[in-house]
Every structure is written in C-alpha cells, then in structure tokens.
Amino acid sequence: MDSEELLAFLSAVGHAQRIRIITELAPGQLYVSELARRLGVSRPLLYMHLERLEKAGLVVGRLELSDDGKALKYFELAPFDVRLNVDTILAAVRQDASDETGQHSPEGS
Amino acid sequence: MDSEELLAFLSAVGHAQRIRIITELAPGQLYVSELARRLGVSRPLLYMHLERLEKAGLVVGRLELSDDGKALKYFELAPFDVRLNVDTILAAVRQDASDETGQHSPEGS
DNA sequence: TTCATGTGTAAGTGGAGACTGACAGGTGAA
DNA sequence: TTCACCTGTCAGTCTCCACTTACACATGAA
Questions:
Q1: What is this structure's pTM?
Q2: Does A107 map to a domain?
Q3: Lowest mean pLDDT among B5-14, B86-95, B97-106
Q4: Neighbour-count burial for B46-57, b at 16+ CB within 10 Å, e otherwise
Q5: Which of A11, A37, A71, A98 is the most exposed place for a label (fewest CB within 10 A)?
Q6: Is B60 part of a structural domain of the chain?
Q7: Beta carbon of B34 within 7 Å of strand D?
C-alpha cells in the first residue's frame, strides 16, 4: 500500500457520515435506497459517499435483481484491517519510491 | 476511543501535507521554522496542520530555549498505534453511547 | 395510464478548511 | 540601530467537497 492508497483509505473513513454507513452495513448488505432511508440521507449524497468508500476498497457494490424484477444496487463491507502507526505510515511513503522505479512489490491484499 | 476521537485521528492523518509532516518528524524533533523550510510550506499553514495533529494526539509541541537564548518551538511525534477494521470502528461508535450515560471507561492511553 | 418503487447522473449552492500575505513582538550579533 | 533569526496570530482568498434539487429512465401493481 503506497501513500496514495493510504490517503484514500484514511480520508474515506475519516468522515462522520461514512462511519455511519460502515456501521449500518456491518450487519449485512443493503441496497442504496434502503440505506438512504435508514440514514436519513438523500440518495445522490449517499452515492457520492459509497463511491468514495468503494474506490478506497471499503465497500463493494453489486447490481442484483429482486424477485419482482426490480434492479437493486446492493452494497456490503469489504474486509479490511489496517494498522496505523509511524512505521506503517513510513512504509507507505517508502512504497511510493518503489512505485516510481517500476518495482511493483508482489505483496498480496 | 470514541468515534469523535477516531474521526479526529483519521481526518488528521488523512491529508497529504500532514503525512509529509509525520514523515519529516519521524527521525526526531524539529522546530517550526526549520520544518517549514524543509517542507517548502508557509509557517502559518504549518501551524494550522501542527495544531490539528496535536489536537488528535499525533504530535507534541514544546517551547525550548536554544543556547543563544532564542525561543524555539519544537515538535515531535507522539507514539500512536491504531488498528482499523470493522470491529474497531464499531467499538468506537459503541463507545459514544457509554460516553452519553456518563460511564467513562477507565482505559489508559 | 398512473402510481410507487428502484437506479443513475447533471447542475447548482454553501461552507469548511487549506492556503497566502502581512503584521507585532522577542532575541543575539554585527 | 540594523540585521537575521525566531514565535504567534489576524484577515483575507480560494478551492474542494459535502449537500440539494431536479431530471431521465426502468419495473410491477392498481
């Protein structure tokens, strides 16, 4: 994980509304309109937040067809576990240099 | 740590400039003007970022007198280690409810 | 056809926070 | 006195992003 990914991750989670979204999605998947109702948030706004969370790899969206034929966009939490201290931050910054030289490290996750 | 503290922490680290500040302070303490020169950042702006980092508990500032009598404001990293996953986020949110009922948990750090 | 449900996006507004420039004040050395 | 440092803060500007309103387009049921 380089500093750009780390930044995307941190700024995604570092927002009250998005913390609420994560909390609401914790028990299981929900589709957008339902989630918007529960949070008392407009749907376009929720879209923005979900998009941000998805780009950062925190949630995953998937279009599904309900029994009565309606298209529902379901979102669920993606598993993530990031440890944050001086060393992990420095590691992310050092990773940038490796990225530039084209030495893509073969690490998973 | 409740969600407010978590939010302060995440939004403090989740900024490119402040990541750079942390990187620069990692080897050891620096005073404000010196740090501003190294980062190529105006001093008032740096003050804002340092203030934000200090409120979130990431850095500590201390006014010191140099040998030649000048006052220097030194900043150094405070030790921190936060693990971030669904459980720790939910724990922070649940902590809010405890805060409201006045049950301050006697946990350290 | 109309209504209630859903997805998806475009266009605009408002405000918080990032950022700049300028100031006042202190010190020791030339 | 002047210079070269330093701290600390105020008052602006500007940019980004959070947020709203409104639209186009589907589906099944009444």
A1: 0.91
A2: no
A3: B97-106
A4: beebbebbeebb
A5: A71
A6: yes
A7: yes
Is residue A105 domain-resident?
no
Flag whether B82 is in a domain. yes
Cβ distance of B13 and A89 shorter than 8 Å: yes
Model confidence band, residue B97 (pLDDT cutoffs 50, 70, 90)? confident
Cβ distance A86 to B93 less than 8 Å, yes or no, reads no
CB A3 within 8 A of CB A93: yes
Query: Cβ of A83 and B86 within 8 Å?
Result: no
Contact present, A8 and B75 (Cβ < 8 Å):
no
Q: Is the CB of A48 under 7 A from strand D?
A: yes
The helix (H) or strand (E) run that includes residue A49 is helix A43-55
CATH of the domain at A60: 1.10.10.10
Question: What is the tens place of the pLDDT at every residue in A48-100?
Answer: 999 999 999 999 999 999 888 899 999 999 999 999 999 999 999 998 878 87
Are B73 and B63 contacting, i.e. CB atoms less than 8 angstroms apart? yes
Q: For B51-94, write each residue's pLDDT tens digit.
A: 999 999 999 999 999 888 899 999 999 999 999 999 999 999 99
**Domains in chain A: how many in total?**
1
Q: Which nucleotide is nearest to B12 (CA to C1')?
A: C17
For residue B83, the chain A residues in CB contact (below 8 A) are: 81-84
Range of the domain at B41: 3-100
